[in-house]
Write a structure and sequence with these properties.
single chain; 579 residues; alpha/beta; ABC transporter transmembrane region fold; Rossmann fold; six-stranded mixed beta sheet; four-stranded antiparallel beta sheet; 20 helices; 10 strands; 10% strand; elongated
């Protein structure tokens, strides 16, 4: 058993606790009942044979003594009735065990999905920005399912081992020599098929990579369908997708065919062994024909279990790498967990416009300098616009203000408090954010507007829509119940932008952040939205990244960034204070 397997068992125990021993107890009880059912065939055959002079076997003697305790004689009818009773109890036990096993598997998979997604959401923004989206999606969707498959296969392995153990013990009472021969053959077959088990583990590790690549390729191509169609590159897109599918096909075929090879080795070898026992057992091993028949009956049922055991172990080896990979990603996410303080500092304003100071803020990423000694003071209620060429540091600066990125040196202060000492939830709940490509869920307009504050009233929504020049919503056939489509695909770019702006305003923000927020608007609509934003002056602090003249000219002051530095500031703070 590998270290990963031990970690898997410990994790399952931490998650499911005492349900696991109960499952094992039911599994053992089922194996014991099935074994007792088969063992009862020997005394039944003896009573049906009617040879009173033959010496009763040990199983028959034990059964006769047990029936005697209840005042029953070991007749054919009594033993047949006992077998029927054992079969009924065995079936009930099997159904109960299967129910609990299926429920625990589903619960374990759901536990992994919850843990991983919760850890992802609690991690800092760097965790997301440094990984492919498809890798994280695959980790939440594919890997827990594979871990659940490992759980089910381990359960089947335990069931098979217990069944084999019980059957072998019963068979030892009947014909020890024959059992020794069969166990030796089984061990030899296990050793012979070890190579395929090792290869299954290799296939399983590769499967995780291929699944992630397939998820990434599919999401990127489907998400970029407009670009693909507009550039007539469908063939190139298909070739990229097909490359991952081809790799997945090769892995799936290799593992499936290996399983059939292993199955063939066990089943056909077992068939030859059973024939040999029937023909040579009575002569060479001096075993009674009745005992041989029961032994054969036991091992006819046993060999499929042994075959299944090897296949179950191969499936475990194929999928167990998913547990190691998912565990590593989970630890990485937990190590990137944002430190969240609970208590608000004294003097923290809950509703007033935010006052923000960037004090000698620098940010480096590897050897690259993103910001260099930026000093900016943004008074409460100011409207500030950041401009600059691509790569000037505007987005990095905005991320520092949002608390998504920590400065390498220097500090960001909000209302006189260091940002890293503030409760991140309290600060961000007071921020209205609107990016260039607004995030809309495939739901109704009403549901999207209520994303930040679920209890928002229809009257509040109407006011926000009017402020964002988005009251076109009420002219749609279904109004607020209109489904926007995937990422808002059923709306125009300007409509998406205005609905997202209304959502940002509904949060009653202390700070409104606009990241190229009017870039998708036509000049007339932009003018309407800009006038709406101007009405928010002094009530909300507004920070905008923009190159659009309509928005920039209304700013109280404009910060020009170049190569990570605040190159110049137009409109002095003194003049802003005087205004």
């Amino acid at each position: 058993m590998t270290p990963t397997s031990f970690d898997f068992i410990k994790d399952a125990w931490r998650t499911l606790r005492w349900w696991l021993p109960l499952l094992a107890l039911l599994t053992f009880a089922n194996a014991l009942l099935e074994g007792a059912t088969v063992a009862a065939l020997l005394p039944l055959l003896a009573t049906l044979g009617g040879d009173a002079s033959s010496k009763p076997d040990r199983i028959s003697r034990v059964l006769a003594e047990s029936l005697g305790w209840f005042g029953l004689s070991p007749t054919a009818g009594t033993i047949a009735g006992l077998i029927v009773f054992l079969i009924a109890i065995s079936a009930a036990t099997f159904i109960t065990q299967s129910y609990i096993a299926s429920w625990l598997q589903a619960r374990y998979v759901a536990s992994w999905q919850r843990r991983m997604f919760s850890a992802f959401l609690a991690s800092d923004y760097d965790f997301f920005s440094s990984r492919r989206t498809g890798d994280l999606v695959a980790a939440v969707t594919n890997e827990p399912w594979r871990i659940g498959l490992v759980f089910s296969q381990v359960n089947l392995v335990i069931a098979a081992v217990l069944f084999i153990f019980v059957q072998v013990v019963i068979a030892l009472f009947i014909a020890p020599v024959v059992v020794g021969l069969l166990v030796a053959v089984g061990a030899l077959l296990f050793a012979t098929t070890r190579w395929w088990t090792v290869r299954a583990a290799h296939f399983g590790t590769e499967l995780t990579k291929v699944n992630a690549d397939l998820t990434v390729d599919t999401s990127e191509i489907v998400g970029g369908a407009k670009f693909v169609k507009a550039t007539a590159t469908e063939i190139r897109a298909f070739d990229r997708f097909a490359g991952s599918v081809d790799r997945l096909e090769a892995l799936s075929f290799g593992n499936a065919f290996d399983s059939q090879i292993v199955r063939a080795i066990f089943e056909y070898s077992g068939g030859l062994l059973v024939v040999g026992l029937l023909v040579l057992g009575p002569t060479l091993l001096s075993v009674d024909v009745g005992a041989i028949l029961v032994i054969v009956a036991i091992f006819v049922r046993l060999f499929p279990k042994i075959t299944g055991l090897r296949q179950n172990l191969q499936i475990v080896d194929f999928h167990i790498p998913a547990f190691g990979i998912a565990s590593t990603l989970l630890r990485e996410a937990e190590s990137k967990r944002e430190v969240a303080t609970v208590a608000r500092p004294d003097g923290w304003p809950a509703h007033a416009p935010a006052a923000i100071v960037l004090d000698n803020v620098s940010v480096t990423f590897g050897s690259r300098s993103l910001l260099q000694g930026v000093n900016i003071e943004i008074p409460s209620g100011a409207f500030v616009a950041f401009t600059g060429h691509t790569g000037a540091g505007k987005t990095t600066l905005m991320d520092c203000i949002l608390g998504l990125r920590k400065p390498t040196s220097g500090a960001v202060r909000v209302d006189g408090h260091a940002l890293d000492s503030l409760p991140s939830v309290s600060w961000r709940q007071g921020i209205g954010y609107l990016g260039q490509d607004p995030m809309l869920f495939n739901a109704s307009i009403g549901e999207n507007l209520r994303w930040i504050r679920p209890r928002t009233t229809d009257d509040e929504i109407r006011v926000a829509l009017e402020a964002a020049a988005a009251d076109f919503v009420y002219g749609l056939p279904n109004g607020l119940d209109t489904i926007v489509g995937d990422h808002g695909s059923r709306l125009s770019g300007g409509e998406r932008q205005r609905i997202a702006l209304a959502r940002a305003l509904l949060g009653a923000p202390r700070l409104l952040v606009l990241d190229e927020a009017t870039s998708s608007l036509d000049a007339e609509t932009e003018e309407i939205v800009t006038r709406a934003l101007m009405r928010l002056k002094s009530r909300i602090t507004v920070i905008a990244i923009s190159h659009r003249p309509a928005l920039v000219r209304e700013a109280d002051f404009v910060v020009h960034l170049s190569n990570g530095s605040a190159e110049r500031i137009e409109t002095s703070l003194a003049q802003f204070a005087a205004d």
